[in-house]
Amino acid sequence: MPARPDESPCILCREIIETNRAGLSFPLFGRTVGIEPFYKSETCTVYVCVECCVGIASNRVEFPRNRPLYEVVHGIVKEAVAQCPGFLLDFWNQLRKNMELPRMGIAELTQGEIIPPEKRLKAG
Ligand SMILES: [Zn+2]
User: Fold this and answer.
1) What is the structure's pLDDT at 63?
2) Per the structure, how many domains does the chain have?
3) Buried b vs exposed e over 74-98: b needs ≥16 C-beta within 10 Å?
4) Which of 42, 75, 104, 124 is the most exposed place for a label (fewest CB within 10 A)?
């Protein structure tokens, strides 16, 4: 099942995000405040791709200082990436796909064997 109905450009890098790719959505609408009659626009959804999310969270993508809305977006993206390790997993799998390596999921990552060190270092 696709992650979204249509392919959409990332609002930061403008790369097209395919419908089956992960990303972060920002539903936006405008509504009047202190103006009669009340008006609320249709909701438009914009997206940020995983690569930009990871770049923002790691401070590799700065927001334009003259665009305060981007500051809000950056704050939300950082919080989302910090809360959801799936961004990093998707980023890693896209890197693997680009290198023609098989896709891996959380299950495969957690099946590793923990090998204790042969010998412990003596304390102090
Ligand atoms: Zn992007």
Assistant:
1) 83
2) 1
3) beebeebbeeeeebebbbebbeeee
4) 124
